[in-house]
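Predict the structure of glutathione synthase.
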Amino acid sequence: MTDKFSNRAKDEAIEWALAHGMAMKTTLDSAQHPAFVLTPTAITPERFQTLAHTVSLLGKLIHAVSEDAAFIEQAIEPITTGDSFFQQLLHMHCTLQQKGQTARRLPMLIMRSDFMDDVTQGPKLVEFNGIAAGMGPFGQRTHELHRYLSHQWPSQFDHWSGEQIGPLVENRAIENLAKGIAKATWQIKHEFADKGPATFLMVIQEHEDNVFDQHLLEHALQDQGIRTVRRSFRELYDGLSAGEDHRLLLDGIGSIDCVYLRAGYQYSDYIANDIIDRACCQALTQTRLMIEQHRVAVNATVAQQLATSKRVQLLLSLKSAHALTRFNLTLEQAERVKALMGEMRAVDKQSIPWIAQRPENEWVLKNQGEGGGHCVFGQDIVPTLQRLDPAEYQVWSLMRRWHPACRQNTAYVVRKGEIHPVEDLISEIGMFTVHIDGQAAFSENAYAGYLIRSKSSQITEGGVHSGLGALDSLAYSKP
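Done. Here is the predicted structure for glutathione synthase.
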């Protein structure tokens, strides 16, 4: 539908998005809206409630895994010969376990668990995100954008949606993530009872464009009386120091109560070519270690990053429900977790003949990388496996590929100011949880909100940042 009213509604949707911080930085003085869908994706109330209640258990599980130092070391060591970055992460983890190198931090696990709602199997876990688990604020803003369109442009909204949806699914990710972070921040502040404002430090990447999503979270924290500070690892290298009773101090700021990492999931985050007294990566990883050796709330700890890796996900998926009770779950809770975890297989010398006999769209090959570009699909899987050195096998895993139902009606994606119809839109569901030292941040539940990213079923990589996916929200399907 391209009549003048639809174009006017689209234009106002773009203006609403930009006015409410739903944007990507393009230059020092400009920004543009990310791609978004004009109407939400339908989900049954039963499936949504199953996810919202069970993701708390996933967070509880991952916290327990992250605190089991022996399990983490045993799980990660086999992949270190084929992945130098994880070799460095494991070295940091082991350093924190050494005598005299106590990890005094308060672990604050902010995790996004990503799911595909398979046509036959229902929601299945795709991956955990325990470091730089962002875009929760954009998830809420997209929900609010759809609410705005449904009220301001009801005729166009109904036409775009095909009238196949019921009420919108509430999403308070900004407020809930801020509430959880504030709880941990104030806990540390009260332990020290020092003067001055409670202070939150966000560790960021240099010159990144996805800053508005971060600022939305910061603004919510500022509304709760918390000062927010942004620094890269390089800026922290010679800016952090130790205060009395292992208080973490930052030059020009003072005491730090909470550290939230939006960087640190790739080698480039630790590179600083101007440091000449020691290897730059070693210097900046030492900065990360220093943070954890002080009394400060931290997400993500090195242990949390390792616990949410594809390697640990593989090992957990291979365990029985009874075996998962090792990680502070009851058998009933472990069975609920197992129902969401997807099927995975380790890569070995038998993988090539085995996968060659499977349908091309049945499995996906993954390495340990975070973000887009780390998955291999279809006919590219066998050639990739053939190129691997046996020492690299453990770095990779095979995961069953899930196939969500496409929308029944044409979906309309707004990209770079224009409407693009998509006939086969599918969605990935990200569910946020917050745990503080293993305890749910909100009474009995840790669920904090959701992020929906949608794309054509023909596209394998669907990240919003890459430009291939689009922001979306949820609505309950009509009976």
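The chain has a mean pLDDT of 92.
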